[in-house]
Amino acid sequence: MLEPMARKTGSHAEQTGPRVRTAALQLFSKFGYAAVSMRQIAKEVGVQAGALYTYTPDKQALLFDLMRAHMLDLLDAYGRVARKNASPHQRLEDFVRFHIHYHIDRADEVFISYMELRNLTQDHFEAIEAFRRRYEAALEDILRAGQESGVFRVSDVRVTSMAIIAMLTGVNTWFRDEGRLSREALADIYWDMVARMISGVEVPA
Amino acid sequence: MLEPMARKTGSHAEQTGPRVRTAALQLFSKFGYAAVSMRQIAKEVGVQAGALYTYTPDKQALLFDLMRAHMLDLLDAYGRVARKNASPHQRLEDFVRFHIHYHIDRADEVFISYMELRNLTQDHFEAIEAFRRRYEAALEDILRAGQESGVFRVSDVRVTSMAIIAMLTGVNTWFRDEGRLSREALADIYWDMVARMISGVEVPA
DNA sequence: GTCTATAATGGGATAGAC
DNA sequence: GTCTATCCCATTATAGAC
Lengths: 205, 205
Fold this sequence. Notes:
homodimer; Arc Repressor Mutant, subunit A; 0% strand
């Protein structure tokens, strides 16, 4: 160690890269991509604005990387949870519980991935949308399997899958860990609602 | 009419005010509040940027007015549809169909009212949130009435109302009039799902 | 009511020293 | 890898002429 230890400047490559991403994630989520300046991100990280360009070619790439990483993580995490050979009922319950827990823990990433789509360039937008469709398709597969085996009664697989994802993701707008409900109680309630929604039991008019 | 008719400048007070609001609405919805400049709005209206300040004290007030007008319209429109003395089942069906139709027709307003909350000042934010809570409370009242009279079986009124609103509003992200489903077919599907979700019928595990 | 011009500030991104 | 300094351009909002 020939360099002074208390220096304010110097090389911190392995630390600074992730810190830039974390700062951008939090700031974009809180104020919106367009409202956040590179100078703000730099200040949060503790470097000068020019130094950010060591880690990203530009602001747009920073946004895309965050959204892409989120979608890849989501697909990967679900892939490790999904049990393709289980019953449709079990697979759906797994999906519901996975979605709620995964999304609650990643409020910033989820928020950005829904809110900042319009700030992506065309190519980037299409890439993110493709990832999202893969996730939606996973749910549609489960609904179709249940429908075909007669355990679910779903009037429209596509609409039902969009309804389920919207209602589950909506949890992020109001749920707080300090609130009245535990995560487990929350997931139980949502699973009960989803199970009824797709049940084969006839409902009296 | 003493003034020339083809003039580029002059007074158009009654026309320009609404045009400013319409342009702001569309641009904020498409690109986001922070990403839209007063110059862009002015260009869309066909005036110079300075002229906008005849109609709004600043950009923030323009956003707030749009969101406030949307919430007031929503509460007013629902108030005219709601039948307080009908059965909970009927009132819920009315709510579901009203929400879907009303929101599909106002995609820009709905988008802004959900996306731009963070760009409001504290006072403005609280005002909008109060309107939103009134709308949510209307749905909660219906669910509570059905629960108490035994026709609904709802495990948590608050969670169920948030789930229903999220799933209904989610329609706006994907529904297109040129698509596979008519609005009526869409509303039928959603009402079917909601009716099952809150039904008193036991679902087999 | 709208224009032109401008004040005051801040934006993204780059160059070159260290 | 980070800094300082800077380019160039856009921003919101206002002043004063018409």
